[in-house]
Amino acid sequence: MGHVFARLAGHGMVLMPHWPYRFERLAGEPHAVRVVRDLPDGPVTAVVRPGEPVEPDEAVDVADGPAHDHWEIQTSVVDLRWPVGFHVAAPLDGSDPVPFYLHGPGEALIFPQGPVPRERCADPGSLVAPGQTLLRHDEQSVELAYEHEGEPWWQAHRLIPYGSDRTLILTAQCPRTHAGPTREAVDTALT
């Protein structure tokens, strides 16, 4: 597949991974990134540290980029700040329309969907799947509760206007015990 539809930008660099990939933060080095490309013969890994030269390899290509002091996940439709505690991963199925997934503590998962026609999200009930209960909603978000494998889970959809007639949906889900930190990660991503 080659390059993918999401890249990481910041600290004067743009990291363009090769599929299948994941970005991980290095422990003790908050701005350093480990890029892992999982291949049939085993993973290929590159470590990127801002300000240090990077040799081209099979995991990632690096170019000059924006100088802001944080990492941003960039796609063709949205740029999101990379929240601490989450790693960025490509979908494993090449036909998956989601450009990337953020995996976090306690099985937390955050991912963008769409954009979709705005009318599809006009009724909060349209975002409630069978077995889910609507906890709260407003013009910008819908929060839900449901059971997954006998455990209480939380899901939220943040609605982001896109153009004049479409909406981008940022979905988060996790065990209900991790709802607070996952909600904070979504807020960080949208700053």
Automatic annotation (TrEMBL):
It comes from the Bacteria. This is Uncharacterized protein. It comes from Actinoplanes auranticolor.
